[in-house]
Amino acid sequence: MRKTVVFLAFALALVGMTVSVSQADEGMWPLFSLDQLNFENLAARGLKLKAADIYNPDGTGLWAAVVSLGGGTGSFVSPNGLIITNHRVAFGSIQSQSTAENNYIDKGFLARTQADEIPATGYNAWVCKSFDDVTKQVLGAVKSKATDLERYKAVEKATKEIIAKAEKGKDVKCRVAAFDEGRQYILITFLPDCKCAEYSKDIVPYKSAIYLPVSAAQLKEGDFDMTIGYPGGTSRFETSFGIDEALNFSYPRSVATRKVLIDIMEKASAENPEWSVRLSSRIKGLANYLKNFEAMITGLTRSHVVEQKVQLELKLADALQQNPALQARYGHVLPDLKALYEKHGKTRLKDEALGWLGQSSRYFGFANQLYRWSLQKAKKDMDRDPEFMERNVPSMRRGLKEAQVNLVPEVDKRMFTYVLHHAMALPADQRIAALDKLVGDTTKVGTDKAIETLVERLYSNTKLGTLDDRMKMFEMSNKELLAQNDAFIGLAASMYDDLEARRQQGKEFDGAQRRLNPQMIAAFRELKLGPAYPDANGTMRLTYGSIKGF
Questions:
Q1: pLDDT tens per residue, range 126-172
Q2: Which sign, positive or negative, has the C-alpha torsion 428, 513, 228, 546?
């Protein structure tokens, strides 16, 4: 049987345009909020489209040509589903098909016809179908006196129920997205009117009724520019406490760790051409965030953003003092947020170390996922953590398979060794007890030797690096999995309590933020001290501006 599929291809279009950038106006607007824009003003600036030409709930409009690629934006540029995106997004597809002998990363790849295409491994193209406000259903599930953790769980449960109902019996994928930190919840439905299948030469290309022809017309300074896409996230309403933590803790420490891990992989790449190909995607991924965080540190420091936020919050506090009714409603918010970040900061070193253990080692990542899955699968579907629900089982299987392409055991070992040293250097009040027990007494042999011994034992006594064994473990019960006596599975089991405590603390922190931040945003808006649009959150947005030269 022939199946219809979104035909995923990537192209790099070199068109004759002036080197320029777009100076965007304030705002990344959800498409269902376009009624808040002044289209008469936009028309005077050069926009020739009506609101309905951009977004129409019936599925027409330019928005129908814009797709989410899971971490990036693409656009249909032909009626046969050809998608154009940028190099960063497409890189993983080319890299996964490369070898040392046939290196598309260096020489490039061009499919002149559909028959010349190769699989875009690891990619899904999501076509947005609809937006539905489900705020009442989500927040209605939260009891008035719920703790922050209870609040998180109530929202999660309601979200799972809404998605299950929306997806039942339909070939769609749904997401419930929080806007304004939880003031509003929108059900977003993706991928209408087509059947999905794995890549095959026999696929029937997705017929995109609306697509964006590539133009070679010159752009001029001052031209009106409009962009529709899926920006990752913005934090215009972030507090001074959150920005201070990012600027003086999260960003610089992440930069330092990423530099070391990149250096480890680059040195390994110089040793082996095949390793160079396999590691290139991970290097690029770490480097992208490294560049972003370095720029954020520079920008936040140069612009004195923390100080500006402190002044804005003082202005808010003063304005609330002048309005007793608003003071009664919102006066507690900033002090409560300050206390929340102070509590969060008490375990942040340990939390950071636990996070890097999984990010640095694919082996530990596999083990942790498989161990959690063996516990979660024993529960009813609606009682599982969202990532382990049945709707996500195919993507878990696919991820475990596709990871084999970039697996380099020796380099994985070097990276894991580094983060283990980092974890073993934690202060006494933030130690990882399970790790201390595994490493053992270091007074006789020293920390370096103890970690080296542990690492050798882990990598010498695991089958997680073998695809067939890894996939067999995916089907096992918790008892069967532990009976394998796999060293990394044992490590994941021993560290489960520490990792689960971190997850629960994260949920409680998120629940508190979703309680307090919407109130802070409401206060800013009622006093006209903050932007009207919600922060970007990985959902489709529109922004506009004018072309400016470099």
A1: 889 999 999 999 999 999 999 999 999 999 999 999 999 999 999 89
A2: negative
- 8-state DSSP, 405: G
Type of residue at 320:
L
Alpha helical stretches, state H, 51-168: 51-54, 87-96, 104-107, 135-139, 148-167
Given the structure tokens 């600036």, which residue do they identify? Answer: 45
Helix H or strand E segment including 297: helix 273-302
Burial 22-47 (b: 16+ CB within 10 A, else e): beeeebbbbbbbbeebeeeebeeeeb
Structure tokens, 310: 């402190």
Q: Identify whether the C-beta of residue 379 lies closer than 8 Å to the C-beta of residue 155.
A: no
* C-alpha closest to that of 490 among 407, 368, 365: 368
> Helix or strand or coil: residue 403?
helix
pLDDT digits (tens, 9 = 90+) for 517-536: 999 999 999 998 877 778 89
Q: In terms of DSSP bridges, do strands 83-84 and 73-76 run parallel, antiparallel, or are they unpaired?
A: antiparallel
Contact 519, 330 (CB under 8 A): yes
Tell how many helices (H) and how many strands (E) occur in the chain. Answer: 22, 12
**How far is the C-alpha of 66 from the C-alpha of 347, rounded, in Å?**
41
